Amino acid sequence: GESVGLHLPTLSVQEGDNSIINCAYSNSASDYFIWYKQESGKGPQFIIDIRSNMDKRQGQRVTVLLNKTVKHLSLQIAATQPGDSAVYFCAENKDSWGKLQFGAGTQVVVTP
Amino acid sequence: GAGVSQSPRYKVAKRGRDVALRCDSISGHVTLYWYRQTLGQGSEVLTYSQSDAQRDKSGRPSGRFSAERPERSVSTLKIQRTEQGDSAVYLCASILVPTGGLYNEQFFGPGTRLTVL
After folding, report:
1. Closest chain A residue by Cα to residue B39
2. Which residues contact B52 (CB under 8 A, 6 or more apart)?
3. Substitution target from A36, A97, A101 for chain B, most B beta carbons within 10 A
4. What is the spatial distance between Cα B30 and Cα A11, in angstroms, rounded to a whole number?
5. CATH fold label, A4-94
6. Which domain holds residue B55?
7. Which helix H or strand E contains A72, and what residues bound it?
């Protein structure tokens, strides 16, 4: 069936380094993707989104890349900080009602 | 400012019992979603409703899940005859626009952790 999933369950990054979180999706009809950050005890928090007619979008310290050819999505975090430690989810918008399909998540651990 | 809140934050239920989880969305937000989040498996949408629909029964995985909208900014997720497999974190999310949520940011609550014994 259609699914959104992540390649790495845990990513350990040294403070100051760049982080790259990957996501594979299988629904070629999806045209909107979102990255969320979830800290312990909190709900998912929007980081950045991208539409399928784009291949790159930049925010503050974050960049999302979309490769529709191989159905791959990635989130790059520049100069990773301790506050970036969290679980990161990619999600695709399932339909016009906005229902989201999330992947399993990647735990990012920032070490000093 | 006030965001989306959920109550209770933790709920323990005996298998077979019904439970009700509450979500208070952001004032003015129209569409509410309920998701079930399972560790290592991601999240799936259970049900959703717009402001003019008090009840939505598009729940998954079965008709045991339903959402009611007693007030414009309040949604109650009801789970009937709970099963151990229902143990998960239940997230509520809302969006501002009334005509679907494509391309619009969803605001999530902190979730309710349900444990079914």
Report:
1. A104
2. none
3. A97
4. 37
5. Immunoglobulin-like (2.60.40)
6. 5-95
7. strand A72-77
Residue A107 has phi, psi (to 5 degrees) of -85, 120
Answer yes or no: is B107 within a domain: no
Task: Respond yes or no on whether the N-terminal peptide bond of residue A112 is cis (omega within 30° of 0).
Answer: no
pLDDT value of position B40: 74
pLDDT score, position B36: 93
pLDDT in tens, A2-25: 345 544 489 999 999 999 999 988
Which tokens hold the place of A90? 């990619």
Give the residue ranges of chain B where pLDDT is below 70: 1, 51-62, 98-103
